[in-house]
Write a structure and sequence with these properties.
By secondary structure, this protein is of the alpha+beta class. It has helices at residues 2-12, 15-21, 26-37, 43-54, 65-80, 88-91, 94-116, 270-281, 306-317; strands spanning 124-128, 135-138, 144-147, 152-156, 159-166, 168-172, 183-186, 191-194, 198-202, 208-214, 217-220, 226-229, 233-238, 243-248, 262-269, 284-287, 296-302, 319-324, 327-332. The chain has 4 domains: 2-54, no CATH class; 65-116, no CATH class; 124-248, Jelly Rolls (Sandwich), CATH 2.60.120.1440; 261-332, Phage tail protein beta-alpha-beta fold (3-Layer(bab) Sandwich), CATH 3.55.50.30. It has a 7-stranded mixed beta sheet, with no helix packed on it. It starts with a helix and ends with a strand.
Amino acid sequence: MKTEHSFLQQLLNDPSFVNWAKNSNNNDIEYWNNWIANNASRIETVDTAKAIILGIKFEKNFPANYKVEKELSKILPQLRTDDFLIPHSIKKNPFKKYVSLSAAALILVLISWSGNQFYTNSTSTVHKTNYGEIIDLKLPDGTSVVLNGNSEIQYKNNNPRNIFLKGEAYFKVKSIPSTKAKFWVHTEDLKVEVLGTQFHVNTRKKRTNVVLDEGSIHLEFDNGDVKKMIPGELVTFSKDSEKLVHTKVTVATPYALWRDGTYTFNGISLKEVMTNIEYTYGVKVKYQHPQLQQLLITGGVPNQNLKICIAAIELATNTRIIHKDNTLLIQNNLNN
């Protein structure tokens, strides 16, 4: 019983199973139909979970007696006058008629009351970082998330495997082998479907970058297209431009290495580096000369303290960076 109860809870918390129950996603419908065909012994628990998902959940409390009596006093007189609505068999027994009408009235009251008490666990949890702040999170399902500066994730407390992301985060998703429960990350551009894997998502620059380190994920787009990613691949997509770009990445590529507190670059332009700084610290960057944007940086730059970060970039590019009024002005180093 305990095992089936645990399995029931897993089904209720699995977005893909919910999609199957609601008949709303072809991939999930096909997956769960096949799973059920191979796991006939658990059909009773599956049917129970489906019934709960499709049914109405009420809070485990009831209206006070005086409220019920008050509503009954309003409804019963009206029902007694509507004899044409009462079956012939009930008319022969006035007491039975009264009891039946009372029950009907009570049902109406309860339905009316419960309509206002419809239970949905809509309470959400939000994790948000300040500029330059990096936090490590452990979600209720065991998934690890590293949230970069100036970023935010949000999820319903009754569905922590359905994440909405703004900014930049690295996910190490906890797999659930018993049900193969999926994990979802939503951005403005697309939706990432996961079973259990490690990947990086960046929603900045008015586009979404997804880098897969290991495992397997699917990207779902608003037009219904699905893209399967393989480890070592970067996919960039913007809903505005509808442009999809695939890039092969290596360990030396700086994506997601920020989570250790250091930006690691290998021949990356100063312009791209400073774009990361702009989003992470909420500053604006200006260049004394346009050619400074093309300077290349190789090495590690601390990213949890803006002052130290600026000093490291100055050293790596032989430039001078003036920080004034939330703006970074990059100049040639006049001392050389």
